[in-house]
Amino acid sequence: MTQMNPSEQNQLQTARPSQRPGLFGRLAAFAALHCLALAPAAAWAGQDSVRPSVVKIHTTSRLPDFLRPWTKAAPRDMSGTGFVIDGKRIVTNAHVVAYPSQIYVQGYQSSEKFPAKVAAISAAMDLAVLTVEDETFFADRPALALDDGLPRVKASVNVYGYPIGGDQISVTEGIASRVEYTTYYLDASGLRIQIDAALNPGNSGGPAVSDGKVIGVAFSGLAKAENIGYLIPAEELRTFLDDLKDGHYDGKPRLWDEFQTTENDTLRSWLKIPKDVGGCMVTKLATGSGQSVLSESDVVTHVGPHALDRSGNVRLGDDLQVMFAYYVPKLAHDGVVPLSIIRGGQPMQVDVPVAAQRKYVLPHLDGAYPSYFILGPMVFSTASAELARGLHADARWFNFLTEKKNPLAMRASDQPAFDGEELVIVPSQFFSHRLTKGYDSPTLQVIQELNGVPIKNLAHLVEMLRDSKDEFLRFKFAGTGVEELVFRRQELLDATEDILTDNGIRKQCSDELESVWKK
Predict the structure, then answer these.
(1) Is 204 a catalytic residue?
(2) Is residue 148 among the annotated active site residues?
(3) Mind listing the pLDDT tens digit of every residue in the chain (519 residues)?
C-alpha cells in the first residue's frame, strides 16, 4: 500500500540550496539533497521573540562523484536555515548539511560566523542536529519550544528563514491546510503538514511557528503547483530527538510487508470479513526477515487498539485519518508490534516483528562515499541506491540499462540474494592505455564473474585479484550484449602505478580496501 502515487513523487522536490553558480554532473547533482526556502518575506512590523533563535547555515559540501569514485565533486557553497532547541543545539534539514567539508552558523543581525559540526543526522527523515563548539554563540539565542501536538487545519503559521534575494531574515504567513501520513526518503514514512506557502531556495530547516511554538520544519515543496509547501511536524522532530538520547539514531521500526485495501465487496466475501470490520490484506511478505508471523491473505484489522477502516486508515484525533503504519513505531516494543488479524475467517492476535531498516543489494550510502579499487586501466566500485536513482531519472540511461538487462535497472529494489551480496560495477571509462586496445569501456556494467568465479562483492573481487596466480584474468559481465574482457594479470599489475601517476590519483583504493589488498 502506497501513500503517494508515482506522479506525485516525481513532482515532490526537496529544497534546492542557495548556492554559487557551477556545473556538476547529473549523477553528482542527483546525490545532493537540496535546500528549499520560502518565498520573499511579507512585511512584518516590529520584533518578535522567535527571530533571535533562527540562524543562517552556510555549508561547503563535497558530494560523491559516482563516475570517478577516487575523488569527490568540486566543492560548492550553499545556505539554509536552522533554529535553536534545548541543549544548545541547532535543528536543520539533513540535506542542508549533507557531505559537509565546512559548516558555519550565523545568528540573527550578526555578521560573525561560528564553526559548527553535525552531531546527528537522518537522511531518511531529512533532519539533522548541529552543535557549536563556542557556546557563547547561544547567548541571547534562547531555545524555541516545540509544540506538543499537531496543528489544526486552517491554523495560522509563520515560517522563518533566510531565502535568496536578501540577507535579512524573512517571515511568511500562511495556514496549515492538510496533515497526512506519507513517505519521506530512503523508505522512511511519517506525518507531513501541508501549508499554503510556496517554498523556494534558501530556507530549508527553518521553523514554522503557531501560537508561539514550533509546529514543524520547512523541508520541501511540490513542483508544478502554486503555494504548496511541506513541513516535518514537531511530532516527527520529537521522535528523532528522543531516538538520539542514547547517542545513536536507530530509525523508526516499521512493517515491511505489502498490503492492499479491502474496499471491494467480492474480495471481502472471499476473505470472510464481517461487514462492520475494516482492514488491509497482506499481499506480499517481507523477505529476508526470518520466520514470518503473517501469511499472505491475512487481513490486519487493528494495530494495537486502533481499528483500520477499509482503506487501511486509522483515526488520529477528532478530524484526522492516517495510514495504520503511523502507529507501528509508537506501539512497537522489543522488536514486535501487536496486530489483530483475520485468517481464514478466524480472528486472532499476533505479535509481528518490525525493523527500522532492511538490506538492499543496492545499499544507501547514508553520507558515505563509494568504495573503489583500481587495477591497470580499470576502476571497480560498489553500486549504490543513489547511483541507481540518478540513472533511473535519466530516460536515456534507464532505457539503455533496461535493454542490456543490467542489474542496476533490474534489481534496484531487490534484497541481497545472500549475506554480503553487492553489485560491483565499472563506474568509468578505461584509463587510456595500450592494454585496452580493441575493447569498449564497460561503463556502468556489473561484473558477474572473474575467471568463472561469481563475484560476491567488491572486497571479494579484490581478494581474488590479490590471490590469483593465473596468467590471464577474464572478466564476464551481467546482462546481455556486453563483451568479455581478458587481460594478462601481470600486465595489469605492472601498469597500475604509472596509470595512477599519470592521472594524479593518490590512492589505488578506498581506505577500507587497503587491508584487503595488502594482506
Answers:
(1) yes
(2) no
(3) 433 333 344 444 444 444 444 433 444 444 443 433 333 333 333 348 899 999 999 999 999 999 999 999 999 999 999 999 999 999 999 999 999 999 999 999 999 999 999 999 999 999 999 999 999 999 999 999 999 988 888 899 999 999 887 888 989 889 999 999 998 887 889 999 999 876 677 779 999 999 999 999 998 877 666 778 899 999 999 999 999 999 899 999 999 999 999 999 999 999 999 999 999 999 999 875 445 799 999 999 999 999 999 999 999 887 889 999 999 999 999 999 999 999 999 999 999 999 998 889 999 998 999 999 999 999 999 999 999 999 998 999 999 999 999 999 999 889 999 999 999 999 999 999 999 999 999 999 999 999 999 999 999 999 999 999 999 999 999 999 999 999 999 999 999 999 999 999 999 999 999 999 998
Last residue of a domain, one of 217, 246, 275: 246
- Give how many domains the chain has, as a whole number: 3
Which member of 204, 340, 428, 510 is catalytic?
204
Cell output for 440 = 569498449
| Catalytic, out of 65, 126, 243, 298 | 126
Task: Please report whether residue 293 resides in a domain.
Answer: yes
Q: By C-alpha distance, which of 413, 87, 468 is closest to 256?
A: 413
Query: Who contacts 252 (Cβ-Cβ below 8 Å, separation ≥6)?
Result: 125, 188, 189, 190, 239, 243, 329, 356
297 in catalytic set: no
**Cβ atoms of residues 201 and 37 within 8 Å:** yes
Q: C-alpha grid cell for residue 171?
A: 517571515
Domain limits at 340? 258-353
Catalytic residue among 34, 95, 302, 460: 95
How is residue 5 written as a grid cell? 502515487
